[in-house]
């Protein structure tokens, strides 16, 4: 939505049709996209986290580190 309206200079109704969205949903989706963009560039603060999710920053277990296979492994040979 943001791309169609911001970069291609289309209207909300036209973007809704191109993206197969319900009528009158473009304004809400555009608002969400602009909010996420502002948070990305730190123009807005992120919403505060609750006590339950304050220490949850990733899905992996503590101390988890993925292993990267060396380039000389048999899996990479042709």
Helix/strand layout:
Blueprint: H1 2-7, H2 12-18, H3 26-40
3D architecture notes:
The chain has 78 residues and is mainly α. The chain has a domain at 1-44. It has helices spanning 2-7, 12-18, 26-40. The chain is extended, with a radius of gyration of 21 Å.
Shape: extended
Helix/strand structural class: mainly alpha
Radius of gyration: 21 Å
Order of helices and strands: HHH
Total helices: the number is 3
Q: What is the residue-mean pLDDT, rounded to a whole number?
A: 81
Assembly level: single chain
Low-confidence stretches: none
Largest sheet: none
User: How large is the share of residues in beta strands?
Assistant: under 5%
Query: What's the helical proportion of residues?
Result: 25-40%
Distance between the terminal alpha carbons, to the nearest Å?
A: 43 Å
Tell how many strands the DSSP assignment holds. 0
Task: Summarize this entry quickly.
The chain is mostly helical and 78 residues long. The chain is built from three helices and no strands.
Quick tags:
single chain, mainly alpha, 78 residues
